[in-house]
Amino acid sequence: MIRRFTGWHMTGILVAFFAVVIAVNLLMATVAIRSFGGTVVDNSYVESQKFNRYLAQARAQDRLGWTDAVALDAARHVTLALTDSAGAPIRDARIAAVAQHPLGRAPDIAISFHETAPGHYVGDVRLPAGRWQLRADINHGAQHLLREVF
User: Fold this and answer.
1) Which of 109, 92, 91 has its CA nearest to residue 100?
2) Each residue of 78-93: pLDDT tens digit?
3) What does the pLDDT read at residue 149?
4) Does pLDDT of 125 surpass 70?
């Protein structure tokens, strides 16, 4: 026996289709809201006005020729090795840094560094598990380096 396709069947198909679409949209919106921790910048227009200044800072840092190697030790302390353009270690630098969780999902952590060997510095704070971005402010005499490490 073959049943006839009626208007009620079509109504059921349309209602089921739109119910699935709405459910998927609600699920995706919920996941997006729960996984996004904040904004990257508060005002992108104002931040874009600083672009040329950021480029000038980057060029000045490139002219210094410093290289850095950032890592985490076994105890999750940030380690930093600094060398100048000739490959010599940079001694007696003053380093302060801020560890930031991407998109602000955790509070920022201020880190101070002390020199353990010529050109090798260790942070005073253990970082919690997870991904962190490090913004280091390095001063050595009259030279200054602002470094972002991801």
Assistant:
1) 109
2) 999 999 889 899 999 9
3) 64
4) yes
Model confidence at 113: pLDDT above 60: yes
Cβ–Cβ < 8 Å for 37, 105: yes
Mean pLDDT of 44-71: 87
Domain that holds residue 123: 65-149
Reference 103, options 146, 69, 70, 150; nearest CA is 150
Q: Is residue 23 included in any domain, yes or no?
A: no
Q: Report if residue 74 sits inside a domain.
A: yes
Residue 150: its pLDDT value, please? 53
91: domain CATH number?
2.60.40
What percent of the chain is modeled with pLDDT above 90? Answer: 43
Q: Are 138 and 93 in contact (CB under 8 A)?
A: yes
Write the DSSP symbol of residue 66. -
Most distant CA pair in the chain: distance in Å?
93
60 assigned to some structural domain: no
77 within domain boundaries: yes
Outline where the chain has alpha helix (H).
Answer: 7-35, 44-48, 51-64
